[in-house]
Amino acid sequence: MNLGRFPRVRLGHGPTPLEPLERLSRHLGGKVNIWVKRDDCTGLATGGNKTRKLEYLLADALAQGADTLITMGATQSNHARQTAAAAAKAGLACHLMLDSRAGVATDAYKHSGNMLLNGLLGAQVHHFPAGTDMPAQMLDLAERLKTEGRKPYVIPGGGSNPVGAMGYVNAALELVAQASALDLRIDHLVHATGSSGTQAGLVAGLVALNAGIPVLGFTVRQTREVQEGAVLALAEATAQHMGLPAGTVRPEHVAADSHYVGQGYGVPTQGMVEAVRMLAEQEGILLDPVYSGKAMAGLIDYIRQGRFTQGANVVFLHTGGSVGLFGYPDAFS
Ligand SMILES: *Cc1c(COP(=O)(O)O)cnc(C)c1O
């Protein structure tokens, strides 16, 4: 597989480290070897998984002659913040369309964390109530900007389309090369799944490589059925974008679990708070309250329930977002 033929703009500090979590593994009983793939360390304005997607999306935007990026997300969107940083680095204008879907209305949530950084990075932020048709709002703004002579490029929420998902095809290649160099047999790869591009890219890349690594996504919003459908559809579209034959990605390659969402997107859970504290205290690693904290809560519960075999090597993909902790001080006080 030659990814060199897909246009890419370097934004991150890859390859990100693949490291054992020895204290955490022991703390959880020592039967499972937990590893972490540090995509929280991509380096772009505090990093995260959207950096990899934006490397391909920005290349596409520049190829189309864009001078402005438009994207959408929740108020504390990590994707929006990384898009603002990518735009700044490329010298493009950036509009962030943010909605209050999480239902959190504290000053910290509205102004600290990612929101503080969006301002520093020079993005223009537009706020909308929960339930707004955000894709329609983005198209409206794009039309308005065009009448002003601008050249906008619209990035879907989470950067999740086949172009963006190439970032995680690339991550799959990187991970398999690292595991091979370490003689590490990866039995499971787990991570938080939201807009689906991360899991879809990983699945398409791992299947294309015949890597034999099952991926499990812990959802942060949707039910298992809805999420698996979305991931499968995007993984198929990504495989097609890569030129793979139809039918390469199959339903059995896609697995999600929605037991750790709690009350809803961006609403803290006890398991998330425990997971964030545990990773901080055992490993000095900062998770985030919306995605990686809930996914780690799922992984911890799976280990406690004995759902992995003795000696299994489980890689947790840390997708970043720790800046979001500053939007949720009450959850941890
Ligand atoms: C966006 C995000 C995810 C989910 O990735 P998707 O590609 O949207 O499924 C996970 N973790 C963090 C920290 C994120 O910001």
From TrEMBL:
Keyword Transcription: no
Pfam families for this protein: PALP (PF00291)
Keyword tRNA-binding: no
Residues found modified as N6-(pyridoxal phosphate)lysine: K50
Record: active site: S77
The protein's Enzyme Commission number: 4.4.1.25
Named cofactor requirement(s): pyridoxal 5'-phosphate
Tryptophan synthase beta chain-like PALP domain location: 10-320
Classification via InterPro entries: ACCD_DCysDesulf (IPR027278), D-Cys_desShydrase (IPR005966), TrpB-like_PALP (IPR001926), TrpB-like_PALP_sf (IPR036052)
Top-rank lineage group of the source organism: Bacteria
Top-level enzyme category: lyase
Keyword annotations: Lyase, Pyridoxal phosphate
Entry GO MF terms: D-cysteine desulfhydrase activity; L-cysteate sulfo-lyase activity
PANTHER family: 1-AMINOCYCLOPROPANE-1-CARBOXYLATE DEAMINASE-RELATED
Family listed: Belongs to the ACC deaminase/D-cysteine desulfhydrase family.
Name listed for the protein in its UniProt record: L-cysteate sulfo-lyase
Lineage start: Bacteria, Pseudomonadati, Pseudomonadota, Alphaproteobacteria, Acetobacterales
